[in-house]
Design goal:
The complex is a heterodimer of chains A (about 220) and B (about 725). Chain A is α/β, with parallel strands linked by helices and about 220 residues long. Chain A has helices spanning about 15-25, 65-75, 85-95, 150-160, 215-225; strands at about 1-5, 25-30, 45, 80-85, 100, 110-120, 135-140, 145, 160-165, 185-190, 195-200. In chain A, a hairpin with a 5-residue loop joins strand 10 and strand 11. The longest helix of chain A is centred in the first third of the chain and has 11 residues, at about 65-75. The termini of chain A are close together. By secondary structure, chain B is of the alpha+beta class. Chain B has a seven-stranded mixed sheet. Classes of the chains: A alpha/beta (about 220), B alpha+beta (about 725). The interface of A and B includes residues 13, 54 and 112 of A.
């Protein structure tokens, strides 16, 4: 499978995701933000980081960059798109995913391993997970507090478009197990066609036993399926 | 313009120093030239009070590629891999403007590391605040922590470890020391020494603004109640631009086009250009009209003394200019040839077609003042703790009190605000004895620890200086690595006071002894004097950042107890020394007595034996015994795994508090399998090392036979509440 990682000035998880993709047998290419043509890819990843410094609103400038038009075109023609952390923020800025990421409820940057529950495993991104499986995945963000309006929230629920929710070790989804104040503990969502996944947690950080656990591996092997 | 006393004072220059300037120039300097002298001759850049004593520290060894004097130190870790590292202070700016002060501290130290051709792989910090009850402490803590996180998180380099301490002594003068560690190829290290005449001097990075003008002079003066007015001297950080600068520099470094490179840190364009020329025994000529400026109508004075961040000066091979410019264009960074090297040995500045400054380089660098300041031998406090009736204190009460104190509380409230794992090579993060970071794509790793013990240094600077080197060494051993070298950040008061100077000299003497004995050289560092407010000096606070090496990833260990039934052994002798201990501080608020003594022979012997046991796979977990003594270290091991411990009473001690809270040095706690006890005993006996079994791993309960019994969960709760309560939003 061919993958492309979009690199914005200020992206800083681009190497990490490239290492993960290569380890998981993707043929990966890095694509600089000033490019106007995307190489043929089955998967496009928008990595974490602080694109353009995120001095405006997270992802706002990246959402208007040259390459992003190509990403939107690819998305509309069904290419798989994965946005992680800043990538998720950028996807909401482009309108490919609805809703927005507000500042964390405690107004601080949060980096820690948190628990997630797999809410839908019938997608190209999550098929190798079990439904309701509990994963432990690292988060690292200042603006991860997902928010959307009631109508879209209902749409997410009715169409099974919530990918992951924050929970505790036992799988309880409540205020205490919500690290950033996200509405209904939402950690990741799909678009209506389920070819786009945006998520705040970093699966690429969870593929190497020496460094962490390997709970991120199945996301990449699902994509390889 | 006439140079008046007032102008001199504003520039932090003494009258005698001004006379020297006149002699060196053979004329009166103009204001720009005076500004340049002031920037180069202040304590921060010239090390005029410390140089003489710093020379005593050992700086060489088989492992050393580059010692002090460059942007950072470089050590060899085999296979053409090198580690580049340094620690630096940003104390004064952080007190005035905590967020930007701390952030630019991180940015500055990162530039020191990547200037040398290294990709930064880890950040650390040592931060000291005043008493928690001081009205500024909460906002300073919050500002500094967000600043450190704000910079490191954005640029994408993990902050892997650090230390945070509180003490009245820092009420009006906090300490923010930042350390950066990078990885480079041994054959691709870049230096600041200029070579060749008529080579292009290239300015790259951010534009120059009016921020930070005279920052280095500000850092070389004491504080008073008007310090707040110094806010405009604090620089503003832009981690995004630094990320671009980092990538652009590393990309350029892949080609062989850089002759020398120097970051614009303290004293900006002035010190960077002079340093390059001075090291290369060359002159340098700059056209200031070409300097990229952020604001209109900037004067030569402002350009030369601005400390705007994220800028570098590069001396480039002339044929490579075009290619180099292309790289910086790609990253949207300025790239402007602003001058050339000359054979005149002079700094010549042109502006609007006029020569506005012309100074011999030697006068600025080599001829900078050097002082052999008067110093008094510190009076050592005697151990006089007899008046305290230790028997009145219940051991479990003391345990809980120390575990829930600010200094010993779990620091996750802080460390959760730092991205500790970006780059995906952090094997062990904050909370252990040392952080462990893998060398990307290789089967090896380094350990890193940063340590200080101001209480010890304040009561006996020499012994304290020795102790802190040893503690750092011990921390690196405790994770299973071989200690290689250190960097130091020496935070002291006003060196013009003989008592403060005495503390400095003796701390250095202590460090020298320990570093020499342990073959643990100092390869880089920084001195921060004038840490005083209204003439009250801080405790002498040397901070040590050390690096150790694992050539095998299977030998990394941590302090988490592993298996019920395993035994915990204390290695090294406990004498019951409570002077300057956490116990005395937290229980009696007493800052009394001498610090524990250091026996370097035992230190080395114990450390090498621990490494030997780790190499033989005989140790399941290990933790050094430091502040708080055996009981606190046992509690930390227990909380790391959430298993319990059944602790045994010592055979030869009548006072349990003395045994369990003493801070005697050179000790480690190791966890071993019962079946290995004989083997371990015979190895320790052979090396003449004192040891005894002190506990057994069990489930859930942390107890001392017939004395107390507490759930590990309860210890954890007590250990994890202080920061949350202190910083709770009301």
């Amino acid at each position: 499978m061919k993958s492309s990682v979009i690199v914005f000035p200020g992206s800083n998880c681009d190497r990490d995701i490239a290492v993960a993709l290569e380890k998981m047998q993707f043929k990966n290419q890095m694509v600089w933000h000033k490019e106007t043509v995307l190489p043929k890819s089955d998967l496009i990843v928008i990595p974490g980081g602080f694109s353009y410094g995120d001095y405006l609103r997270s992802g706002a400038i990246a959402g208007k960059s040259l390459i992003i038009d190509e990403v939107i075109k690819a998305a509309n023609s069904g290419c798989l798109i994965l946005g992680i952390c800043n990538g998720f923020q950028i996807l909401t800025e482009t309108g490919l995913l609805k809703g927005t990421l507000l500042r964390n409820k405690n107004l601080k940057f949060i980096n820690k391993d948190v628990y997630l529950k797999v809410m839908n495993n019938k997608t190209k991104f999550t098929s190798k997970y079990k439904i309701n499986q509990i994963l432990k995945i690292n988060i690292a963000h200042n603006e991860g507090n997902y928010f959307t309006d009631q109508r879209h929230l209902a749409e997410l629920k009715d169409n099974n478009l919530i990918a992951f929710k924050y929970c505790n070790q036992k799988g309880d989804i409540n205020e205490k197990s919500n690290p950033n104040g996200a509405i209904e503990n939402i950690a990741g969502i799909f678009n209506s066609k389920k070819n786009i996944l945006g998520m705040m947690p970093h699966p690429e950080r969870m593929i190497d036993k020496l460094i962490s656990n390997t709970d991120g591996v199945n996301l990449f092997s699902s994509l390889q399926n | 313009m006439e140079i008046t006393d007032k102008i001199l004072e504003k520039h932090g220059l003494k009258k005698e120093e001004y006379k020297d300037i006149q002699k060196l120039l053979k004329r009166e300097p103009n204001l720009l030239e005076l500004g340049i002298f002031s920037a180069m001759w202040n304590e921060h850049c010239s090390y005029k009070s410390s140089r003489l004593h710093l020379k005593k520290l050992p700086t060489t060894g088989k492992q050393v590629i580059q010692g002090p004097g460059e942007n950072a130190g470089v050590i060899d870790i085999g296979d053409n891999d090198a580690i580049v590292f340094k620690i630096e202070s940003h104390n004064h700016p952080s007190y005035i403007e905590p967020y930007q002060g701390a952030a630019t501290g991180v940015g500055g130290i990162l530039r020191d590391v990547f200037t040398m051709g290294a990709r930064p792989i880890a950040l650390l910090n040592s931060i000291h605040f005043g008493s928690p009850s001081h009205p500024k402490t909460k906002s300073l803590l919050n500002g500094v922590v967000s600043g450190i996180g704000g910079y490191g998180n954005c640029i994408g380099i993990p902050t892997v470890a650090g230390e945070t301490k509180f003490n009245d002594t820092y009420n009006e003068n906090i300490l923010v020391n930042a350390m950066a560690v990078g990885h480079a190829s041994k054959d691709k290290i870049f230096y600041s020494k200029a070579k060749g005449v008529n080579k292009s001097v290239v300015y790259v990075g951010s534009k120059t603004g009016r921020d930070g003008i005279h920052g280095a002079s500000m850092a070389s003066a004491e504080f008073d109640e008007n310090s707040e007015e110094k806010k405009p001297t604090v620089q503003v950080g832009d981690p995004f631009t630094e990320k671009l600068l980092l990538e652009a520099c590393l990309e350029l470094m892949k080609e062989n086009s850089i002759i020398s490179i120097q970051d614009m840190g303290a004293a900006g364009l002035t010190s960077s250009s002079i340093e390059m020329a001075s090291k290369g025994k060359l002159g340098i000529e700059l056209d200031l009209n070409k300097v990229p400026c952020r604001e209109n109508n900037m004067s030569p004075y402002e350009m030369m003394l601005s400390e705007s961040q994220e800028r570098m000066l590069i001396i480039l091979d002339e044929k490579k200019e075009k290619k180099a410019k292309k790289i910086f264009d790609k990253w949207d960074l300025d790239f402007v040839v602003i001058g050339k090297t000359t054979d005149t040995n002079r700094l010549v500045l042109n502006f609007d077609n006029k020569i506005v400054a012309d100074i011999p380089i030697r006068a600025l660098a080599d001829e900078a003042p050097q002082y052999d300041r008067k110093w008094n031998k510190p009076k050592i406090k005697k151990n006089n703790l007899k008046k305290y009736d230790l028997k009145k204190i219940k051991i479990e009460d003391a345990l809980i009190k120390i575990l829930s104190s600010p200094d010993h509380s779990n620091k996750s409230w802080i460390t959760d605000q730092y991205d500790q794992v970006v780059m995906c090579d952090t094997i062990q993060k904050s909370g252990g004895d040392a952080a462990v970071v893998r060398i990307h794509n290789k089967n090896k790793a380094i350990s890193i620890s940063v340590d200080s013990s101001a209480n010890y240094c304040s009561s006996d600077p020499k012994s304290g200086g020795k102790q802190i080197v040893c503690e750092n060494w011990r921390n690196l051993i405790s994770v299973g690595s071989k200690p290689l070298a250190i960097t130091n950040c020496l935070n002291f008061g006003n060196p013009e006071k003989p008592d403060v100077m005495g503390e400095f000299v003796e701390c250095i003497n202590g460090m020298k002894e320990a570093c020499e004995f342990l073959n643990f050289p100092v390869v880089s560092g920084n001195v921060s004097f004038y840490n005083e407010t209204n003439s009250k000096s801080i405790f002498p606070t040397p901070v040590i950042g050390g690096i150790g090496l694992f050539d095998n990833l299977n030998k990394i260990i941590n302090m988490k107890t592993k298996k019920v039934g395993n035994l915990i052994i204390i290695v090294g002798k406990t004498l019951g020394h409570l002077g300057q201990s956490s116990f005395m501080r937290e229980i009696y608020s007493a800052n009394e007595g001498a610090p524990p003594e250091i026996n370097l022979t035992n230190e080395k012997n114990n450390g090498h034996s621990i490494l030997n046991l780790i190499n033989l796979n005989l140790i399941s977990s290990c933790h050094d015994v430091s502040s708080g003594g055996i009981l606190i270290s046992l509690a930390e091991m227990s909380m790391a795994s959430m298993l319990g411990l059944k602790i045994l009473k010592p055979k030869k001690f009548t006072d349990l508090n003395e045994y369990f809270f003493a801070e005697d040095q050179g000790r480690y706690l190791i966890e071993i399998e019962v079946d290995n006890l004989k083997k371990v005993e015979s190895i320790l006996k052979k090396s003449n090392i004192f040891y005894e079994v002190v506990a057994e791993v069990q489930n859930d309960i942390f107890e001392l036979s017939k004395t107390f019994s507490i759930k590990t969960q309860e210890l954890y709760k007590n250990n994890n509440q202080w920061f949350k309560k202190f910083n709770a939003i009301n």
